[in-house]
Design a protein that fits this description.
Blueprint (H helix, E strand, L loop, with lengths): L3 E5 L3 H12 L3 E6 L10 E4 L1 H9 L3 H7 L5 E6 L4 E6 L1 H7 L4 E4 H12 L4 E3 L3 E7 L2 E6 L4 E4 L1 E4 L8 H5 L10 E9 L9 E7 L2 E7 L8 E9 L36 E6 L1 E3 L5 E3 L8 E6 L3
Length: 298
């Protein structure tokens, strides 16, 4: 029996569900409220079982080509002292598939291409649905409706339809820590290019995971886990105020001293100077020397 299926949400879950339903012979349409699919987030580590599913859906080769090579894991303490290192090869051999850390935007594009952009409608927000004997009718913010035999709700963590489907409210629970995700150019002086490295200590974690399959532009997926009270200020303006520019040069030992004008968040970026006196941003040398610092009041 072939079903007409409507998937609400064109994220990772929605597109994967749509592709799986297509492979099962069903007619599938995907809708999403956003007007365009922009690169969002940093990366995602798709582990061996997930990659095997993506292979069964026909996108495994594309995922492997675009992902980083992660052959081992290593842990260090906050001072950089090695704690342990182990190969992931036994796991891969047992499961029959390696893990594939990959940019979220790349994974989404691979799934979108496989589903077919003609089967995806953007800028259409589903605000409700009605179930009847003939199936289900989706209702949209522009007043239009669509009928389907089946609706798949995959509109993300801030889903507007989840509570309707479950018949109860779903409360979000803060787990006690905040996670920041970034992508940085990968260089061997930061970590081996085929190894997932983590620094742990004082209930915090910094992680660097290879995520790019292009040897010409290797990247690390970095994430920072920091425990913070639930009442920590979260106003984005607190992190974006422009407080002017401070320029400083290192001394002969490569050190620099800076006096911060006031407490707050600061963006810090270094530049490299060659022996010919030519100054280049660190990013032009495929290295990352930037950080966001919070200066606390005394």
């Amino acid at each position: 029996m072939t079903l007409n299926v409507l998937v609400i949400g064109a994220g990772m879950g929605g597109l994967t569900a749509a592709l799986a339903l297509q492979k099962s012979g069903h007619r599938v349409q995907v809708v999403d409220r956003v007007p365009e699919l922009r690169p969002v987030g940093a990366a995602i580590s798709v582990w061996s079982n997930g990659v095997k599913i993506l292979k069964a859906l026909g996108v495994g080769d594309a995922i492997e080509q675009a992902s980083g090579r992660m052959d081992a894991m290593a842990y260090h303490d906050q001072d950089g002292t090695p704690l342990t290192r182990f190969s992931l090869r036994p796991l891969y051999d047992d499961v029959g598939q390696r893990a594939c850390p990959i940019a979220r935007a790349t994974l989404q594009q691979v799934l979108l291409d496989a589903v077919g952009q003609a089967n995806v409608t953007l800028g259409l927000a589903c605000v409700g649905y009605q179930v009847n004997d003939d199936g289900v009718t989706a209702e949209f913010a522009d007043g239009s409706t669509r009928r389907a035999d089946l609706i798949v709700i995959a509109d993300g963590t801030h889903s507007r339809l989840r509570e309707r489907a479950l018949g109860r409210a779903v409360a979000r629970r803060y787990c006690g820590y905040v996670n920041w995700n970034v992508r940085v150019a990968a260089t061997p002086d930061l970590a081996p290019l085929n190894q997932w490295v983590q620094y742990v200590g004082n209930h915090q974690r910094v992680s660097m995971m290879p995520m790019s399959g292009d040897p010409a532009t290797p990247e690390f997926y970095c994430f920072f886990d920091v425990p913070l009270p639930i009442d920590t200020p979260s106003d984005p303006a607190r992190y974006r105020d422009e407080l002017g520019e401070i320029k400083a040069k290192t001394d002969k030992d490569g050190k620099v001293s800076i006096t911060w004008p006031e407490a707050g968040m600061y963006w810090m970026e270094a530049e490299l100077t060659t022996d010919k006196g030519v100054s280049k941003p660190a990013t032009a040398r495929r290295a990352s020397y930037s950080a966001t610092l919070e200066v606390l009041a005394q």
